[in-house]
Amino acid sequence: MNRWSRGMGWVLWVMAVFAVGSSVAEGASPRSLQEIRARGELVVGIEDDTWGRFHIWDKGSVEGLEVDLAERIAQAVGVSLRVMPIPWGKGEAGTISGSWESGTWVEADLLLAGITTDAERAQKVTFSDWYFSAGQTVLFRKALGARTTGDLAGRRVSFQGGTTSEAVVRDSMPRSEAVPFATWSDAFSAFMEGTVDAVVVDSPLAIQKARENPELHVLGVLLSRERYGVAMPKDVDPEFKALVDQVVRQCREELFRKWFS
Predict the structure, then answer these.
(1) Strands, DSSP E only, in the chain?
(2) In 10 A of CB 102, how many CB atoms?
(3) Using one digit for the tens of pLDDT, what is the confidence trace for 86-119?
(4) How high is the pLDDT of residue 15?
(5) What is the per-residue DSSP string for 118-131?
(6) Which pLDDT does position 1 carry in this prediction?
């Protein structure tokens, strides 16, 4: 996963965001662009937990960069948008991560959840062109005085398990104690409560949290460089993928300015 800043007031609540559960269609063929148009709606799976300015849930409604991107894709298809909240999970069927770990696909046309594109995941799903570029970093309290990952040796570091943050902690911070959590919210809460000393997360979200709280500081280096892509079934309709790629390229800079400038 991955993310960035805040500071501006939230804009535009996205309407009509209701789900019908995250049932799994293992082995089912993806719908073609023409079938989506005939249905009259685009079903987009978005992580059910707020994550920075990418998807912000409040009382069943959601907004954020990824919701705006989903709306743009639906408009290009010529249909309405329906957002389906789906848990990130631990690779099990019916979750976002299950799409590339268990090899199943949820009942959605595509997934938007700050998903880092990599070769391993691309064996099970198809990614669009990138819509956001970032990297992993460390968020900690200024009082800790850390300047490098080495300064966090022996410290407890939280992260969301099953994401690229996990590999970064284990590879870049081998002398720190890795403490995984099921969700980003849980990992950050543990950090704020003092249960852990630092948290590893995508740079956009780390910067956002540091701007909101002057006691927090972001390590001045990226521990990885990553790009997010729209995830689609492995055998996605080429015409549908081409349309998604076109929309992504056309609006990624505009959406970045809107949510992170």
Answers:
(1) 41-47, 56-58, 61-63, 80-86, 110-112, 125-134, 136-141, 156-160, 177-181, 198-202, 216-218, 226-233
(2) 18
(3) 999 989 999 999 999 998 999 899 999 999 999 9
(4) 30
(5) -TTGGGTEEEEEEE
(6) 56
Report the SS3 class of residue 147: coil
- Report pLDDT for 30: 64
Length in residues, the chain: 261
DSSP letter, residue 214: T
CA 226 – CA 114 distance, rounded (Å) = 10
In this structure, which amino acid lies at residue 173? Answer: M
Distance (Å) of CA 50 to CA 130, 174, 187: 21, 29, 13
- Token pair, residue 235, equals 């055998």
Q: CA-to-CA distance for 132 and 201, rounded, in angstroms?
A: 15
Q: pTM for the complete prediction?
A: 0.79
CA-CA distance, 205 to 226, in Å (whole number)? 14
Residues 6 or more apart whose CB falls under 8 angstroms from that of 203 comprise: 2, 3, 4, 134, 135, 136, 137, 218, 222
Give 57's pLDDT tier (boundaries 50, 70, 90): very high
